[in-house]
Amino acid sequence: MATSDPSSSNTAQDPNPTNLRPTTYDTWCGVAHGCTKKIGLKICGFLQRNNSLEDKSRLVSALKERQSTRNLLACENSEKEGRFQKTETDFSNLYARDLLPAKNGEEQTLQFLLEVVEILLTYVKKTFDRSTKVLDFHHPHQLLEGMEGFNLELSDNPESLEQILVDCRDTLKYGVRTGHPRFFNQLSTGLDIIGLAGEWLTSTANTNMFTYEIAPVFVLMEQITLRKMREIIGWSNKDGDGIFSPGGAISNMYSIMAARYKYFPEVKTKGMAAVPKLVLFTSEHSHYSIKKAGAALGFGTENVILIKCNERGKIIPADLEAKILDAKQKGYIPLYVTATAGTTVYGAFDPIPEIADICDKYNLWLHVDAAWGGGLLMSRKHRHKLNGIERYIL
Ligand SMILES: Cc1ncc(COP(=O)(O)O)c(C=O)c1O
């Protein structure tokens, strides 16, 4: 989540640690949906109940506007004879090649996608139904052997659209309903409908983020969303920067690369042979991706040193300091420490301020892995668990 400047002795605290600057429902909600799921939903729920009068009147006029647009669309649609109406279609003789961009593929495409949407909506509806199963469990061999028309084998011949629809249904049927009210997991839970709409939208746009030319709206959206996220957690623009990252593991790897480059920029062109023997430190409860990154980046897993934790799964700062001194004494250069804000198994929050003090003292880069605890920066009640993360903004 945050990376540190190891050479910095900046110990300035967040100028306003409880500054969550509530703005409008929409701004909070947008960020909450994009940033965290469960917490985001809670925040949205809270804000919904607390909309100001001004916000309410704005929402009412938006609703009126939508209704009049709908009337307009209804007229247009009736003129065009129900353009999006489902008709009985035999998909067993239709194949991907019959869909757009195939010549005259519009109608098949429309009918096929309407079927897919129906499958997805049925799934969404069932997901929120407490009386349904969270999982229709089968052993791997049962799924691999194939059952009730369910077959994972990849055919060498094209499958009909009918088969693809069956496969869509079965894929959802035998999977875990992570949005089910009875599905509990500390890392992922809940089906965020706005997030789902966003996924449909981005998949349909099917673009990439190379340049403004290829994705003008998304490129601007990225900058604005990141700026808003920083603002909401109380970091002004000059205090931070951000990127959207595909996940926690790759973010941890980026952080080690950033640290190494900061101290030894020559590594970029000359490789690891040009740098001294470097060691990394992380909690014995940290995510395995730190070790994996150590291996992938050429440090070697033996040079990722594990720090002992107390009975609550938090790093023991004295053990960190002792291991830094030990490594130095053996001729290694301590480079980097990860503190975890929400460990994968216990959900423990390492004592960031104490770890940051040690990093300051020995001039080490501090990274905070806030892959799942980071959302707490949006909570007035729990934000303090990440206190100290702001000390190392570049
Ligand atoms: C603390 C922590 N860091 C990193 C990760 C890896 O995240 P991802 O699976 O998004 O790569 C996890 C995932 O469980 C995690 O709990």
From TrEMBL:
Q: GO MF terms on file?
A: glutamate decarboxylase activity; pyridoxal phosphate binding
**What cofactor is this protein dependent on?**
pyridoxal 5'-phosphate
Q: Which GO terms describe its biological process?
A: gamma-aminobutyric acid biosynthetic process
- Which Pfam families would you find in this protein's record? Pyridoxal_deC
Q: Which Gene3D superfamilies match?
A: 3.90.1150.170, Type I PLP-dependent aspartate aminotransferase-like (Major domain)
Record field: catalytic activity: L-glutamate + H(+) = 4-aminobutanoate + CO2
Record keyword Transport present? no
Which InterPro entries does this chain map to?
A: PyrdxlP-dep_de-COase, PyrdxlP-dep_Trfase, PyrdxlP-dep_Trfase_major
Q: Which UniProt keywords apply?
A: Decarboxylase, Lyase, Neurotransmitter biosynthesis, Phosphoprotein, Pyridoxal phosphate
Q: Per the UniProt record, which residue ranges are transmembrane?
A: none
Q: How does it assemble?
A: Homodimer.
Q: What does this protein do?
A: Catalyzes the synthesis of the inhibitory neurotransmitter gamma-aminobutyric acid (GABA) with pyridoxal 5'-phosphate as cofactor.
- Family in the record: Belongs to the group II decarboxylase family.
Question: What protein name applies here?
Answer: Glutamate decarboxylase 1
Organism lineage reads as: Eukaryota, Metazoa, Chordata, Craniata, Vertebrata
Q: Which gene encodes it?
A: GAD1
